[in-house]
Amino acid sequence: xxxxxxxxxxxxxxxxxxxxxxxxxxxxxxxxxxxxxxxxxxxxxxxxxxxxxxxxxxxxxxxxxxxxxxxxxxxxxxxxxxxxxxxxxxxxxxxxxxxxxxxxxxxxxxxxxxxxxxxxxxxxxxxxxxxxxxxxxxxxxxxxxxxxxxxxxxxxxxxxxxxxxxxxxxxxxxxxxxxxxxxxxxxxxxxxxxxxxxxxxxxxxxxxxxxxxxxxxxxxxxxxxxxxxxxxxxxxxxxxxxxxxxxxxxxxxxxxxxxxxxxx
Length: 264
Prior knowledge:
The protein is α/β, with parallel strands linked by helices.
């Protein structure tokens, strides 16, 4: 790939969202909910991280890094990690959580790095927000030949005893379920490889609430409706036989991983 990083990347304290993208308002809402995102969103299983990381990688980008949930799993495995995130609010949380990592304002459509400069671009819980027609060539631009694009989503297992009631409360809204099954990538990348990892995330009741209040579905509701939704979640915690009186709650996830290597 040829070309240079875009010259008009926003300043560190500004948002770096691209104009004209679908669901732009929902994506921007995460800045407001960054603290809840950090508190309520799960980490990722070690098996998923190891499968996505290419062997011998020296410089890896966590693209759409959010508050650094995936970033912090990379720092002990890779010599250099660069986190790229469009939301200024998310970046502020990320810097607090992972102070040793380089954090840049940017997006999948506008990555502030040089051509052929990284061994992997990993995208956790974020590819469904991007325009793949613009993001795929931009990712390919910054990857070295043979470099890996890795995509990962945590998807709640729908068979937990309380799951159906929770989905009714949040209107069965999903930002990533369908996209994680068949991510849109395409040339110059070959067909994606896929691996699923089942695991359990153990949370406190307040972290369970934050899992809901950090979602774009919740953050884009009028304030009065947010109050109603949060109250229903707390009632679920108080009254459901599988949740009531628990100090910790086991939330089952399937982590869906996809990867493809840029032709050498």
